[in-house]
Write a structure and sequence with these properties.
With 504 residues, the protein is an alpha+beta fold. It has four domains: 2-206, Alpha-Beta Complex (DNA primase, PRIM domain); 217-296, no CATH class; 317-389, no CATH class; 405-485, Arc Repressor Mutant, subunit A, CATH 1.10.10. Helices cover 34% and strands 18% of the residues. The protein contains 17 helices and 16 strands. It has helices at 2-6, 42-50, 81-91, 117-131, 180-190, 194-198, 217-225, 232-246, 250-261, 268-277, 299-302, 345-349, 351-362, 371-384, 397-411, 437-446, 453-461; strands at 14-23, 29-36, 57-58, 66-74, 96-99, 105-116, 137-139, 156-157, 319-325, 331-336, 339-343, 387-389, 427-429, 432-435, 466-471, 480-485. The chain has a six-stranded mixed sheet. A four-stranded antiparallel sheet has the order 5-6-4-7, sandwiched between helices.
């Protein structure tokens, strides 16, 4: 199928979103996202096009950190898609505009061959900035996935779920929904070679300058789209919050922004009431949950801005798309300023430990908010878009402990007599092996084992080859030892070679 060929991605996993039927304040459909660690079958591709739920999500970045497509996810709703297409055409960008399931826009860049994910991502970010969608989600989300740690990357729900009967399609020139066959023709027209992607240039003149420099993305979006007449008071209130953070003569700036961007401008009396409200203690905070702000809110990006909802003097790094591997203990992966970071649960929960992990892995300095603010503002936001993955079999604790036991009892130094147990060595006799838990646990810790000793001991007892735990009598002590069935040395099967006599 051509559809399958176009949207090739990660071959080892795919994503699905189970919709809950509810929507966010912005109008985005909500649901639970999870990743299945399985190849995408032909049946799954066909089910997607037939409109069977759940829709298919593909991870664009493959095991070689390459991709054949990327996407700018414009997370705004009730968009004028034709106007977006005109802007794209005017700038000469090879992007194909699709309607998303919630009414936003997905701007796809397609390539004929796999190209480095870093190249795809950087070009899409440049084009997003030029189009006025700075801060939009970019797929691939990562330029490198930590596949050896069980990481898969993040998926995007594909278009044409149910063909044109659904709500995810591209457009004909006149704005009509394009059929799947028409999309194939559009694809053939715009698909790029690597050389063509590399040659995409964005003139500095085309980059949209932010009206509210280092301020909330919502205000810059509204400055471009226009402030609706029915919500001008709320809009100007948020503008006033920004002005108070940035300017000494902030009162005059509020009046200036009112004249330039409100259509029609608010009256002098209304402006003064907004300014007066700024002097009340606790009132100089952004109102993010009210219109028109909530409709164009980009909370993740806002928290990275100096004059956004984050920190007054330090910018929070961009935190994006939390992924959980459901292992024991769980593994967490998070995009931090475009870099993939692996976290333990305690590092994710504690802002101090989080900052250290980010510094270690991503070379990014993160401010440390109060614990309550971290949980209530940042962590809850990340959990809303959580993607869950089943763990790799190789990362299953039972499989890991079996491998460690094999290395300890077979590959390492061995006791010659049972008295050598006191030398921290395993002792094998007949069909069983004995060792002290403390000695084995020390070996595990040297090999980056993270489970505590009690849980480790309980895990050994769950293994099929566990025999018993008891005391053994030595000359000078009676230590408690664990007995398991002896693990056999792994030998490669020797191939028989026929002997041939060769003349000397």
């Amino acid at each position: 199928m051509k559809f399958k060929e176009i949207f090739q991605g990660n071959n080892s996993a795919y994503g699905q979103l189970i919709l809950s039927g509810s929507k966010t304040d912005k109008g985005k459909a909500e649901g639970k996202a999870f990743i299945k660690r399985q190849p995408i079958t032909d049946n799954l591709w066909q089910d997607h096009l037939d409109g069977k739920d759940p829709a298919l999500g593909v991870i664009p970045i493959n095991e070689n950190n390459e991709c054949k497509w990327g996407c700018i996810d414009v997370d705004q709703y009730n968009l004028d898609h034709l106007n977006i297409m005109r802007n794209i055409k005017g700038m000469g960008f090879p992007l194909v505009t699709f309607r998303s399931k919630s009414g936003g826009a997905h701007l796809f860049l397609f390539t004929k061959e796999f190209i480095p994910a870093a190249l795809m991502q950087s070009k899409l970010k440049e084009m997003a900035d030029a189009l006025g969608y700075a801060g939009s989600e970019i797929f691939p989300k990562q330029t490198e996935i930590l596949s050896d740690r069980g990481d898969t990357g993040n998926f995007l729900n594909l278009p044409y779920h149910g063909g044109t009967r659904g709500l995810r399609y591209t457009f004909e020139a006149g704005g009509k929904a394009a059929s799947l066959e028409s999309f194939y023709s559009i694809y053939d027209e715009w698909v790029q070679t690597r050389e063509e992607v590399e040659s995409i240039t964005i003139s500095k003149k085309t980059v949209v300058k932010e009206v509210f420099d280092n301020g909330p993305p919502c205000l810059n979006t509204l400055a471009e789209q226009g402030f609706g007449e029915g919500s001008r008071n709320n809009a100007l209130f948020n503008i006033a919050v920004y002005c108070k953070k940035v300017f000494d003569d902030w009162e005059n700036k509020v009046g200036q922004y009112n004249q330039e961007y409100m259509d029609p401008p608010l009256s002098y009396q209304e402006v003064q009431l907004v300014i007066k409200s700024m002097t009340k203690k606790g009132y100089d905070k952004y109102r993010c949950k009210e219109q028109p702000i909530c409709g164009v809110c980009n909370a993740a990006k806002c928290r990275t801005k100096k004059f956004g909802v984050g920190f007054e003097d330090e910018e929070m790094p961009e935190l994006d798309t939390l992924t959980k591997i459901k292992s024991n203990p769980p593994q967490w992966f998070l995009n931090v300023s475009g870099k993939r970071v692996e976290l333990k649960t305690e590092q994710l929960h504690n802002p101090n430990l989080f900052a250290i992990a980010v510094l270690d892995q991503a070379n990014v300095v993160s401010p440390i908010p109060k614990a309550k603010d971290w949980r209530e503002v940042y962590l809850k936001m990340l959990m809303q878009n959580l993607q869950e993955i089943e763990p790799l079999e190789s990362l299953n604790p039972k499989n890991q402990i079996i491998n460690l036991l094999y290395d300890f009892t077979v590959n390492g130094p061995q006791a010659r007599t049972k008295e050598d147990l006191t030398r921290k060595l395993p002792w094998t006799q007949d069909e069983s092996t004995c060792f002290r838990l403390d000695d084995f646990y020390s070996f595990c810790k040297r090999n980056n084992w993270e489970m505590d000793k009690t849980k480790t001991g309980n895990l050994i007892k769950q293994l099929d080859f566990f025999m018993d735990e008891s005391r053994i009598t030595l000359e000078k002590s009676t230590p408690r030892v664990i007995k398991i069935k002896a693990m056999k040395e792994k030998r490669e099967k020797r191939q028989d070679v026929t002997y041939q006599e060769t003349p000397f």
